[in-house]
């Protein structure tokens, strides 16, 4: 399968490499397509979202590269649109919707910062009830399409990022039901779900998002899937994606590899 990478971060947000370095690496790896998905601006977060002036430069640079390398690779201009952002997506080829913060009583709880952030928030804002934080997270996740108009749902259960090393969430009946209920409501929308290897390449996990019980439900619902690297460096542009392909092939599970296939599903609105 010709590799492609649609969830990538570059120096316009929190990535290490310039978009051009990423494109050149993608060409070297034989990718047919690459999409950029820098983080949207969040009024409460100044470290990695693109403020409006940076966003304009980002768009211009990706369009420049799209043109410059048009005979060697297909380049797509995308954005990772956080639930807590409010941006205009008219100029983008595609949108990835993501929940990076759970909003609780005016607090923005980061979901992928550290296990301690989760533990403190569970203790201080949820009376020690981890399932209640998960319920809020999955409720926001279930709203991603309505909130952002996204084509792709990012890292479905990113709240479990640290669980292999430092357990925060258990697959309790309440936890599972909140995740599955978000699956079921999103599966009714014209969206594609990520199988995301980002936390593997960064050493947090040995398996991609989402957890097997969620993937099983998505497969049962015949929800369209795409494998994404969620990379922040050119060195991990297609990291772990072949392994996921092999695993999905083994269970006869189909997945999309081209942006045209994705947009065919999502832009039939
Ligand atoms: Zn993300
Ligand atoms: Zn990302």
Description:
The protein has 269 residues and is an alpha/beta fold. It has one domain: Metal-dependent hydrolases (TIM Barrel, Alpha-Beta Barrel), CATH 3.20.20.140. It has ten helices and nine strands. The chain has helices at 19-28, 52-68, 115-125, 130-142, 144-148, 173-187, 198-201, 212-220, 241-250, 259-266, and strands at 4-5, 33-39, 74-82, 94-98, 101-104, 107-110, 152-153, 192-196, 225-228. Helix 4 (130-142) runs parallel beside helix 6 and helix 6 runs parallel beside helix 8. It is globular. The structure holds zinc ion (2 copies). Residues 7, 9, 80, 230 line the site of one zinc ion.
Unique ligands:
zinc ion
CATH superfamily: Metal-dependent hydrolases
The overall number of domains is 1
Which sheet architecture does the biggest sheet show?
7 strands, parallel
Spatial strand arrangement across the major sheet: 1-2-3-4-7-8-9
Number of helices: 10
Q: Quote the average pLDDT.
A: 96
What's the architecture, going by CATH?
A: Alpha-Beta Barrel
Give the low-pLDDT segments. Answer: none
CATH topology: TIM Barrel
CA(first)-CA(last) distance = 29 Å
User: Globular, elongated, flat, extended or rod-shaped: what is the shape?
Assistant: globular
* Helix-strand sequence: EHEHEEEEHHHEHEHHEHH
Strand portion: 15-25%
């Amino acid at each position: 399968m010709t590799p492609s990478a649609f969830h990538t971060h570059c120096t316009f947000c929190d990535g290490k490499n310039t978009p051009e370095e990423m494109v050149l690496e993608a060409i070297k790896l034989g990718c047919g397509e690459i999409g950029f998905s820098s983080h949207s601006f969040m009024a409460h977060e100044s470290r990695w979202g693109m403020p409006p002036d940076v966003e304009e430069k980002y768009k211009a640079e990706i369009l420049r590269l799209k043109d410059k390398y048009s005979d060697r690779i297909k380049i797509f201009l995308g954005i990772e649109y956080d639930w807590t952002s409010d941006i205009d997506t008219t100029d983008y080829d595609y949108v990835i919707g993501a929940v990076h913060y759970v909003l609780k009583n005016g607090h923005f709880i980061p979901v992928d910062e550290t296990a301690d952030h989760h533990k403190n928030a569970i203790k201080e804002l949820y009376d020690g009830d981890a399932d209640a934080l998960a319920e809020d997270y999955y409720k926001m996740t279930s709203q991603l399409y309505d909130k952002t108009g996204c084509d792709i749902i990012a890292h479905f259960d990113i709240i479990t990022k640290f669980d292999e090393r430092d357990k925060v969430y258990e697959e309790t009946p309440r936890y599972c039901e909140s995740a599955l209920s978000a699956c079921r409501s999103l599966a009714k929308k014209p969206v594609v779900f990520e199988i995301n290897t980002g936390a593997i390449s960064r050493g947090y996990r040995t398996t991609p998002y989402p957890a097997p019980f969620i993937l099983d439900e998505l497969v049962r619902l015949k929800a369209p899937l795409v494998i994404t690297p969620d990379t922040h460096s050119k060195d991990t542009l297609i990291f772990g994606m072949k392994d996921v392909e092999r695993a999905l092939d083994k269970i006869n599970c189909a997945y999309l590899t081209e942006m045209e296939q994705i947009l065919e599903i999502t832009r039939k609105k």
